[in-house]
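Q: Hi! First time doing this. I have a protein sequence and I read that you can turn it into a structure. Is that right? Here it is:
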Amino acid sequence: MRAFVINEYAHPSKISVVSNAPEPKAGKGQVLVDVYSAGLNYFDILQAQGKYQVQPPRPFVLGNEFAGKIASNSPIPDGCPFRPGDRVFGGGQGAYGEKVAVPWQSLVALPDNMTYDQGAGLYVTWPTSYEALVGRAGLKAGEWVLVTASAGGVGIAAVQLAKALGAKVIAAAGSQEKIDLSVRQGGADHGINYSKEGWQKEVLKLTGGKGVDVIYDPVGLIRDSLKCIAWKGRAIVVGFAAGSIEKLPLNLVLLKNISIVGIHWGAYTKFEPSRVPVVWQSLLDLFSSGRAKPVVYQETFPFERLADGLLALEQRKTWGKVIVRIREPESAQTKARL
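A: Yes, that's right. Below is the predicted 3D structure, encoded as structure tokens:
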């Protein structure tokens, strides 16, 4: 099968899709999924280089987020609600391959009103953002939320979710184009450019001098953002897309009576599995009501250009969720034959 295989650690730009990768075999409790679209994540770039906290033994197929359908030759384990041909989205190592083997519990039925491209970007970003805001920060309606990298995959999801939960949202990004997109696509109330010196003063002005109640940061801007956090504010450490892990002034944590909390959604299946279906039900309700909708980057990358997509993501040239098309949907294949 075609797959993006990591034989030796290297930057994705130095790796190509191969056509002779062995198809995965389903283990106990697993199903096989024909992958149609896969979501690109920053941690994929790290994992390809051996720099991520989770490193499968080599060789391995990169990618962790996908949408597709249960394969015709898939076993169906006891208790599995899915059948061959069912459309699903989910997560599991090996998403950048034409087939992936995953535990059936790692899959969710793809809503009828969503495409594979839309579904491919749901499994990591949306529950991360929801649990960060609701489960970790305890966001309440009427509170102020600052979302950094607001036009990115997790950022635009956080903006939409915060608005759906009744918060007042300040979208922070590094260009006017991304700020405008955060307002237009995400529904943010205000936008600021954090590449400009003293941007925190603008946040304080917008909040009437109070500061923001919640900071959602996937970049590594917690330290800078503490200059505009409110009394009893909560700062959520989501990631370090800027590349370096911050050292925080803990005196400010004490003086401002604030909390610094982390979100590691991937560990919930191990440490708090009962929370996972609760989060997904809340998200599916939001999707079905139209209060939240996946935002997909304007260019969907063909499988052969996966490395280009990851490079564009790394260089912050994208917005929303970046998707790679592993194979064409059946409708597109039919049109091509006609």
